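Justification of resources, computational component.

The compute hours requested in this renewal are based largely on the per-chain cost of generating structure records like the one below. Each record pairs the submitted sequence with a full structure-token output. That output is archived, and it is also reused by downstream analysis tasks.
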Amino acid sequence: MKITPNQFAWIFLIVLIGLIGWGGYAAWNFFQNPGENLVSMENEVKLGEMITQQIMHEHGEDAMVQDAYADSCIHAIYERLQSAMGGSGYHYNIRLLKGDEPNAFAIPGGNVFVYTGLIKFCHTPEEVTAVLAHEMGHVEKRHTINNIIKQMGVGALLSYLGDGSGGAAQQLSEKMINGFFSREDEAEADDFALALLERAHIRPSVLGEVFSRMKDEHGDMEGVMSLLSTHPELEQRSAKSKAYQTKADFIEMPIHMDWTRLQQLWP
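The structure output for this chain reads:
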């Protein structure tokens, strides 16, 4: 069949629009997830180790919790989540940091810091588990590395990976402790946490309950809990978590530990 010039022009226009649309989507995806496209997993782990060392240096060795019972409790909480994940590219290191802030934050490479203030704030181990699941969501979705690239630029990040200068390390550690994620990142981490909690046999609505109580008791506290941020949709996030529908065969299984004993380690 012979194609007329007019038909050829329409076909060309349709193909051109398709190519432009594909290119636009590729560019959008690239800038939404720069870490996935620019930073290898190996370099992310290396970066995480550098930032971890800087955080430990800034807080001092005495600030890191070194208690066998506390370690066993955190390990039990993590193991419940890890067993439900079904595999991960990260080897997680969960560290307890002394501090009154009810706070937790993730840094690149599978590192998560939990303040003892969060342990004292949470009523049950399941509440801490919900917070940890959220932070692991930021790690698994590579929000931590993406956030650094968006704030510092890939050039500065690659330069830091090359020389690991102290000034850059301090800047990065401050961004990890005090920085906030975008609304989209928070929503994605919430979704990850809710699904993971269900698979771990922990009631997903616990996450929303922590959100609500944190907002009620510490809503005006500067820098409190990076996972809460100051975004106006916090109430919607809490409501979404509380409304999450588990499957019909969901069975809740508590995490058994002496929670009061753990909390009393830090009067």
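The first strand starts at residue 93 and ends at 97. The two ends are 85 Å apart (CA to CA).
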